[in-house]
Amino acid sequence: MQLALNHICAPKLSLEAFFAMSRRLGVEAVEIRNDIPDVVNSHAPGEVRRAASEAGVRIVSINALYPFNVWSGDLPDRARALADYAAECGAEALVMCPLNDGTRIAQGDLVHALGEMAGVLRERGLAGLVEPLGFPISSLRRKAEALAAIDVAGGDDVYRLLHDTFHHHLAGETAFFPERTGLVHISGLTDPGVRVEDMLDAHRVLVDGADRLENLPQLRALLAAGYAGPVSFEPFASEVHDLDDPEAALRATMEFVTSGVTEAA
Predict the structure, then answer these.
(1) Running DSSP on this structure, what letter comes out for residue 95?
(2) Cis ω on the peptide bond leading into residue 64 (within 30° of 0)?
(3) Bridge-partner residues for 163, per DSSP?
(4) Tens-digit pLDDT profile for residues 58-92
(5) Within 13 A of 73's CA, how many CA atoms are on the CB side?
């Protein structure tokens, strides 16, 4: 299992400190962001490329283009700018998230957006990681729907799914598509009082034995079916972001996940 780290694991660390921590933890695959923390709008792409090279890490993705499925207004320009940045900083892919405000997006509009974005990605040698969001208000909740639109758009050469264990659980999904998955995000949820339909990013912590999202069974299913890509930790909860020693906490959750998957195998 190839572990990766998303910068949101320790957003208070500088880019260089995050890369250095990743290497101390034995991780070479990392993700940077344009929100928490906003690396894209605070660092020149060449600076990011140099820092990654010096640390010996590979940038598997930038999080995220939003809302990728509404190809209007300033989105085309933002998409091209973010893709330019990704190519210049050495990132391999862009994470693409759908509109998440309760607005319904027609399948035809989704297909159109995927078709337009495919050209942007191909021109720059990037992959697009389409991440369905399982929230009840999301305009794209399930992976099968995303794949159907990708196929209609003729984008199989450039698009892969992003399987997020949190969103897989929220959407009530049971199907796995390992052969079409390019990245897996994992996070835990341990609050026993929150209902599934009320689960939010703020509840997402590091994975441990109290996890309610079935991270380990999801990972076992993906790996058993042939998934061999990165598995990246992506906690959103403030209690994780505020940890005095994020490195120790990440080491513990990495050991828990690795041993849990290995023991089952």
Answers:
(1) E
(2) yes
(3) 184
(4) 999 999 999 999 999 999 999 999 999 999 999 99
(5) 6
Domains and CATH numbers, the chain: 2-264 (3.20.20.150)
DSSP designation for 9: G
Could you tell me the two tokens for 168? 């897989």
Q: What span, in angstroms and rounded, lies between the C-alpha atoms of 219 and 232?
A: 11
User: Distances in Å between the alpha carbon of 30 and those of 201, 229, 254?
Assistant: 20, 12, 14
CA 220 to CA 218: how far, in whole Å?
A: 5
pLDDT tens-digit series, residues 200-242: 999 999 999 999 999 999 999 999 999 999 999 999 999 999 9
Q: Give me the torsion for CA of 141, 142, 146, 148, rounded to 10°.
A: -130
Distance CA 96, CA 195 (A): 27
Helix axes 15-24, 246-264, angle to 10 degrees: 40
Q: Name the phi and psi angles at 95, rounded to 5.
A: -80, 135
Write out the two tokens for 57. 């890490």
Q: Please name the helix (run of DSSP H) or strand (run of DSSP E) that holds residue 21, with its range, or none.
A: helix 15-24
